[in-house]
């Protein structure tokens, strides 16, 4: 049994097939298939069910997979220990995120990290909040940026990066136009335009509506705040946005303070705290926290 065979097995499972696994490992697909077949011959059991349109683990494969991950983790840990001893930082780190506000200047942060640690392979991918949290817990992502709303697992820490009041926004001429404030209860029976379930902002809203005993009328859902504002500006409903997002459309939307209760939308940096992170991942977390804290202070001063 070779380490490479275990790497290919885990890659096929994580990527959902041989083609994507081969691309991730930068090898030809037949090579991945051959190595896994060799592993199956050595173990005397099929690990993957190839009979359907998608590749799935067999019962034996499900039993073997945790040991494969543990073996790869042990090797990575040994390499990390040597790297820490010699002072060389290397490895691979992945950052995940939802739609990122431009004012956080994430590109500058990642470029600065790459310049400081050129031996670290750095990548980033956008994903929805639920997938981001699952990927973080599974170790496929090392640090993430996501909306905060629901409680996080005990082994995940969060640091608030952006914190803004939520406001109601309608187009000029709407029946709410001219109001300076509105309560949550007054939104009952109005067509609402919000982010999808699972996002931080939507979780905050759903919790507030549930506590007030209100079943909101959700007319439109979209993952991009800009599109929510566009829908409201065209008179398709009432939207609820963080104040800076609503102000971007000040000439087309009337902004109303949301009271009783006042709600806030938060974007947070999240990372694992269970000791399973590599030195490179810990360095990225520390670097991101410093950078984003500076951006937050700059925004507060403006």
TrEMBL record:
Domain HTH lysR-type: from-to ranges: 1-58
SUPFAM superfamilies in UniProt: Periplasmic binding protein-like II (SSF53850), Winged helix' DNA-binding domain (SSF46785)
Entry keyword Magnesium: no
Alphabetically ordered keywords of this record: DNA-binding, Transcription, Transcription regulation
UniProt cross-references to Gene3D superfamilies, sorted A to Z: 3.40.190.290, Winged helix-like DNA-binding domain superfamily/Winged helix DNA-binding domain
Sequence similarity: Belongs to the LysR transcriptional regulatory family.
Family annotation (PANTHER family): HTH-TYPE TRANSCRIPTIONAL REGULATOR YBHD (PTHR30419)
Name of the featured protein: LysR substrate-binding domain-containing protein
Species name: Nonomuraea longicatena
């Amino acid at each position: 049994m070779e380490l490479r065979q275990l790497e290919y097995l885990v890659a096929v499972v994580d990527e959902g097939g041989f083609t994507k696994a081969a691309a991730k490992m930068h090898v030809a697909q037949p090579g991945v298939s051959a190595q896994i077949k060799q592993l199956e011959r050595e173990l005397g059991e099929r690990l993957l069910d190839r009979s359907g349109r998608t590749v799935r683990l067999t019962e034996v494969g499900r039993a073997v997979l945790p040991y494969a991950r543990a073996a790869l983790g042990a090797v990575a840990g040994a390499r990390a220990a040597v790297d820490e001893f010699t002072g060389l930082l290397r490895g691979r780190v992945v950052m995940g995120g939802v739609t990122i506000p431009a004012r956080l200047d994430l590109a500058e942060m990642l470029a600065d990290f790459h310049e400081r640690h050129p031996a670290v392979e750095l990548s980033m991918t956008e994903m929805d909040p639920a997938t981001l949290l699952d990927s973080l817990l599974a170790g496929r992502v090392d640090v993430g940026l996501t909306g905060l709303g629901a409680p996080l697992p005990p082994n995940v820490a969060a640091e608030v990066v952006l914190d803004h009041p939520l406001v109601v926004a309608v187009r000029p001429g709407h029946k709410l136009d001219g109001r300076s404030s509105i309560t949550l209860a007054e939104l009952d029976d109005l067509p609402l335009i919000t982010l999808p379930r699972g996002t931080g902002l939507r979780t905050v809203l759903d919790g507030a509506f549930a506590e007030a005993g209100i079943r909101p009328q959700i007319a439109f859902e979209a993952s991009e705040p800009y599109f929510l504002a566009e829908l409201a500006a065209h008179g398709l409903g009432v939207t609820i946005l963080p104040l800076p997002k609503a102000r971007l459309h000040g000439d087309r939307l009337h902004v109303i303070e949301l009271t009783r209760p006042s709600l806030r939308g938060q974007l947070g940096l999240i990372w694992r705290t269970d000791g399973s992170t590599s030195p490179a991942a810990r360095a990225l977390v520390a670097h991101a926290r410093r950078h984003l804290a500076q951006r937050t202070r700059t925004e507060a001063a403006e």
